[in-house]
Amino acid sequence: MSENKIPYKIYLSEEEMPHSWYNLRADMKVKPAPLLDPGTGAPMTAAELEGVFCKELVQQELDNDTALFPIPQEIRDFYKMYRPSPLVRAYCLEEKLQTPAKIYYKFEGNNTSGSHKLNSAIAQAYYAKKQGLTGVTTETGAGQWGTALSMACGYLGLDCKVYMVKCSYEQKPFRREVMKVYGASVTPSPSDTTEVGKKILAQFPGTTGSLGCAISEAVETAVTHEGYRYVLGSVLNQVLLHQSVIGLEAKTALDKYGVKPDIIIGCAGGGSNLGGLIAPFMGEKLRGEADYRFIAVEPASCPSFTRGKFAYDFCDTGMVCPLAKMYTLGSSFIPNADHAGGLRFHGMSSILSQLYHDGYMEATSVKQTDVFEAAEYFARVEGILPAPESSHAILAAINEAKHCKETGEEKTILFGLTGTGYFDLVAYEKFHSGEMKSVVPTDEDIAKSLAQLPQVQG
Amino acid sequence: MSENKIPYKIYLSEEEMPHSWYNLRADMKVKPAPLLDPGTGAPMTAAELEGVFCKELVQQELDNDTALFPIPQEIRDFYKMYRPSPLVRAYCLEEKLQTPAKIYYKFEGNNTSGSHKLNSAIAQAYYAKKQGLTGVTTETGAGQWGTALSMACGYLGLDCKVYMVKCSYEQKPFRREVMKVYGASVTPSPSDTTEVGKKILAQFPGTTGSLGCAISEAVETAVTHEGYRYVLGSVLNQVLLHQSVIGLEAKTALDKYGVKPDIIIGCAGGGSNLGGLIAPFMGEKLRGEADYRFIAVEPASCPSFTRGKFAYDFCDTGMVCPLAKMYTLGSSFIPNADHAGGLRFHGMSSILSQLYHDGYMEATSVKQTDVFEAAEYFARVEGILPAPESSHAILAAINEAKHCKETGEEKTILFGLTGTGYFDLVAYEKFHSGEMKSVVPTDEDIAKSLAQLPQVQG
Q1: Whole-prediction pTM value?
Q2: Domain total for chain A?
Q3: What is the Cα–Cα distance from A209 to B386, expressed in whole angstroms?
Q4: B206 CB contacts (<8 Å, ≥6 apart)?
């Protein structure tokens, strides 16, 4: 390979970094359904939500009309510590695959939290600080969100209480330790520090926990402690708003080189990365200015898009949170303990759910062992050890590139490489030793948890 | 903070990346002393060295005159996968310290090996491949070099046999796993796979190993296996040559903004990072074109510059390697098992030893607990979780910046942030729990190992 016109890595300058987040909802013809009060079935008001969330974040959550939210200077300054993130042209992968496809990935792993989660963590911590709060509570699954929030809180001097899904807490002792370096307290969930945790422990002794359960505990802790609010790393509209920085940077970088992607691929758990990556591109599609294929890739072990139901459901296992209309497997759904990494939430962002429902996006599910095979292949070819979550997108991108090889099409593929796998080596070891399985829920499993959906008209 | 003229991170373009490595020896008036045959005391010839090292690397090792070695295009292309590395202006650290000093660091941790070691690993693997070899052998202490070499070999399809210092092998299971992802085989050292390993095990049963011992085993394996050569991640002249890419990029980036550092600080184990970082600046000093203060920072638990002797010594514990003239604690010196991370080699690069001996450079040693305190402080302020090795430089830079605060001097400080601490969390945990000690060798310890220096005139 000689010096190429398009570099291996495209870095924007600090001035080229977005000055505003983009709110995809402003361009949606059918808006995402509102959050409902589980008791009355009425849409949650700002006043009600402010008991749980910070004031300004509630405004962002509810605003379906404002397209651009200026990024406060303090947040932009924090972003500059680890952003802009590189848009990488995967020359080595293309060569290895011998594909005519052109592959790009937006790499969000070059920060200590190891993923894109920091983009929303600093925003949420900033608004909490601005409101004069003492601290925030949250849950974390694979640990990326908890680490990101710990970093943001450590930087701003806010207290940070993290409920970590028990199986991750045990599989990832070093993640906890990073959170402690940044001053956070970390509790394995379910725990006996909350009423909802005690109840779940009594009902399911020996449970390895779930994200939905950890959410319940974090929310309870926030509402029962003076000066605390709850923050969440995915699913919510506000999170997708903050994560639009990923897509905005990617689009600016591609535009500089006159490149237009044909296919845009992201892994999908709660939707934070996917929603952020596709935002400005989807905006163009919604406004009829351009067309793109969008592919959401989810684990076969937690397939909310591909096997779930589009309905109102609780966001948490403890059923204390508002109801959201989304693709869901039911709030009692817990992926098999063999499932490694994140993407373990039973539901999906309301925004993405609506877009998928309206046909703007495709979804596919992939098996865990195939994901790790793609991860190792990618690590050797492109040098980066990817997170299991990100590797779902890698696998789908490789499959599309192989398809291009068959058809001879020179498509341009963009995917989100959300993070690194430095804290996922227990899972890599399982994959190597052949111990890893790909346990997929049965139809009965899913029917059972879906049977508990709340009776609400959406 | 508003938009600053100098950005938080200065990224060079691919074209601005160095096209040649810079050989500091070309500008040294007193050249580093040659490697000697331990049997005859005569300088090692190229032919002799080629039994152990790759042919082209031997040329680089022995060449004291050529200033610039063009970087082969294949290596430049590999560099583009993770370079240029950012030169970071530590605005947040400056503000936190309330210092008039301006602090920059060259951050080499944004790659899966987690450190600068990849710069030389790809070069050495490339020349091995070019020579048609089957594979390479090496040792690794903290694991950074082994990981880097595994990545380079995985990329080029070379076999890679790594001897890992036993205490690191046990403390860092995930490092081994990363190496395995890249296809390397990893053996704890001392082992019974080599004669020298067996001998050391018999002499010191229960030893936690040392870098010098692992070197002996790797060299023995290379010379007893057809198609294998030995490669080393530090100390050697060739390694400093490859690592000059760090200093060259840093200097280009600073020059772009008209910034001239007053003080340049690097951690020092075998000297790979320090030698690479200072190279072009030291060249200017040697040529009388500019002046800089250079500070080598070493662990108090392994203080070769500050408490060692400038003399010919073996590079390995097994005394099978050539003799190098260097600051050394004696080849049988092993830092206390409490010592975390790298910087555990008993000797020091001959180039840096000569420069230090000739008064071109200062050296200081710091205690482990102080190093971790600085590491945690830095992590919270600058967002990056640093490697223990790098944190030696952080501590010294913070001390210099505090001194500037006292004197009011607006000095410009540049230091090398060689890597990340994601695989050092056992050590961070020890620091947090108060279990960490700072065990410093006694005068008797050092006198004992120095008593075994070979009797050679240098």
Answers
A1: 0.95
A2: 2
A3: 32
A4: none
At residue A187, does pLDDT exceed 60?
yes
Q: Do B385 and A81 touch (CB under 8 A)?
A: no
E-strand stretches of A237-308: 263-267, 293-299
Residue A455 lies in a domain: no
Residues of B in contact with A150 (CB under 8 A): none
Rounded to whole angstroms, the Cα distance separating B1 from B8 reads 11
Range of the domain at A214: 20-69+115-230
CATH of the domain at B290: 3.40.50.1100
Q: Of B185, B208, B230, which one is at a domain's C-terminal end?
A: B230
| Structural tokens at position A200 | 């779940």
Helix (H) / strand (E) element for A138: namely: strand A135-140
| CB contact (8 A) between residue A151 and residue B383 | yes
Q: Are residues B193 and B259 in the same domain?
A: no
Q: Are residues A140 and A279 in the same domain?
A: no
With an 8 Å Cβ cutoff, are A385 and B92 in contact?
Answer: no
Same domain assignment for residues A358 and A289: yes
Q: How many residues does the structure list for chain A?
A: 458
The per-residue pLDDT for range A304-350, each reduced to its tens digit, is: 999 999 999 999 888 888 999 999 999 999 898 888 888 989 999 99
Cβ distance of B380 and A420 shorter than 8 Å? no
Tens of pLDDT, residue by residue over A351-372, are: 999 999 999 999 999 999 999 9
Q: Does A386 lie in the same domain as A353?
A: yes
Is the CB of residue A148 less than 8 Å from the CB of residue A117?
Answer: yes
Nearest CA in chain B to A1: B77
Q: Burial code of A13-22, b = ≥16 C-beta within 10 A, e = fewer? A: ebeebbeebb
Domain stop point among A168, A202, A230: A230
Maximum separation of any 2 CA atoms in chain A, in Å? 65
**d(C-alpha A20, C-alpha A22), whole Å:** 6
Taking the CA of residue A268 and the nearest CA in chain B, the distance in Å comes to 24
Chain-chain contact of A8 with B1 (C-beta, under 8 angstroms): no
Q: What is the pLDDT of residues A395-418, one digit of tens each?
A: 999 999 999 999 999 999 999 999
**Minimum Cα–Cα distance from A372: chain B residue:** B181
Cβ-based neighbours of B369, under 8 Å, separated by 6 or more:
B431, B436, B437, B438
Is residue B294 in a domain?
A: yes
Say whether both B445 and B429 belong to one domain.
yes
**What is the Cα–Cα distance from B113 to B125, expressed in whole angstroms?**
15
Give the Cα separation of A276 and A267 in Å (integer): 11
Do B41 and B142 lie in one domain? The reply is: yes
A267 and A174 in one domain? no
Q: What is the 3-state secondary structure (H, E, C) of A15-62?
A: CCCCCEEECHHHHCCCCCCCCECCCCCCECCHHHHCCCCCHHHHHHHH
pLDDT digits (tens, 9 = 90+) for A211-264: 888 999 999 999 999 999 999 999 999 999 999 999 999 999 999 999 999 999
Rounded CA separation A349/B70 (Å): 52
Q: Please check whether residue A456 lies inside any domain of the structure.
A: no
**Helix ranges restricted to H, A318-453:** 350-357, 368-382, 388-407, 425-433, 443-450
Span B73-121, pLDDT tens digits = 999 999 999 999 999 999 999 999 999 999 999 999 999 999 999 999 9
Contacts of A17 in chain B (CB under 8 A): none
Q: Give chain A positions within 8 Å (CB) of B432.
A: 177, 180-181
For an interface test with A, give the residue of B422, B424, B431 to mutate (most A CBs within 10 A). Answer: B422
**What is the ipTM metric for this complex?**
0.93
Helix (H, G, I), strand (E, B) or coil at B181: helix
Smallest Cβ–Cβ distance between A111 and the set B178, B376, B383 belongs to B383
- A329 and A188 in a common domain: no
CB contact under 8 A, B177 and A92: no
Q: For residue A3, is it within any domain?
A: no
CB within 8 Å: A380 and B183 = yes
